[in-house]
């Protein structure tokens, strides 16, 4: 356009830094939301509280997200991906040993999104449910391929076993968390379920 000024190098750099900072701010909000949602539930965290925890004003929320539901889906996707990255480094017995523990049970904000929020997700939009379904599917694929099956196992047996095993692992954490923190039952549920799950793995084929 005639007469339009050409941005100088400083102005171009400022724009780039601003965009980069905006992206960093968005990621920080998602990370903060991911932890708070797991700790308090989707309905237990308001937008104002969430933004305050992230260090921003309430009004800044809608510069990054169209709605709280959008953030819920993105935060869940983020935390599910992180959980999956941790599972990728484990075999099935190792997964059970790490997952069905008191440490995981007590670490709500940093623990598995499935155990923390599947109950909440059941009451949310299809967008949020789809995010969970995709995360569950990726977890089943990752661990199902590692499930110790014999040479005569039918196709898909590992996946079926992992659906059962994952459901039991998540259920154990949910039941234990429903008990008071100092309850003997909270520990008993974890101990019994962990032992039973490990005992259900084929002994001869178990990965060490």
Walk me through the structure:
The protein has helices spanning 9-40, 47-54, 68-88, 92-99, 102-106, 113-121, 126-144, 157-177, 184-200. It has one domain: Tetracycline Repressor, domain 2, CATH 1.10.357. By secondary structure, it is an all-alpha fold. Residues 9-15 have low confidence and may be disordered. Helix content is 67%, strand content 0%. The chain is globular. Residues 46-65 bind DNA.
Indicate the topology:
Blueprint: H1 9-40, H2 47-54, H3 68-88, H4 92-99, H5 102-106, H6 113-121, H7 126-144, H8 157-177, H9 184-200
Supply the CATH class.
Answer: Mainly Alpha
Any low-confidence stretches, pLDDT <50, length ≥5? 9-15
Tell me the strand percentage band: under 5%
* CATH architectural name: Orthogonal Bundle
- Major beta sheet, specifics? none
Approximate helicity band: 55-70%
Reading the helices and strands in chain order gives HHHHHHHHH
**How much is the radius of gyration in Å?**
22 Å
What CATH calls the topology is Tetracycline Repressor, domain 2
CA-based shape: globular
- What is the averaged pLDDT score? 87
Structural class: mainly alpha
Note the gap between the termini: 69 Å
**How many separate structural domains?**
1
So how many helices? 9
Strand elements, count? 0
Question: Quick recap of the structure?
Answer:
By secondary structure, the chain is mainly alpha-helical.
Can you tag this structure with a few keywords?
208 residues, mainly alpha, Tetracycline Repressor, domain 2, 0% strand
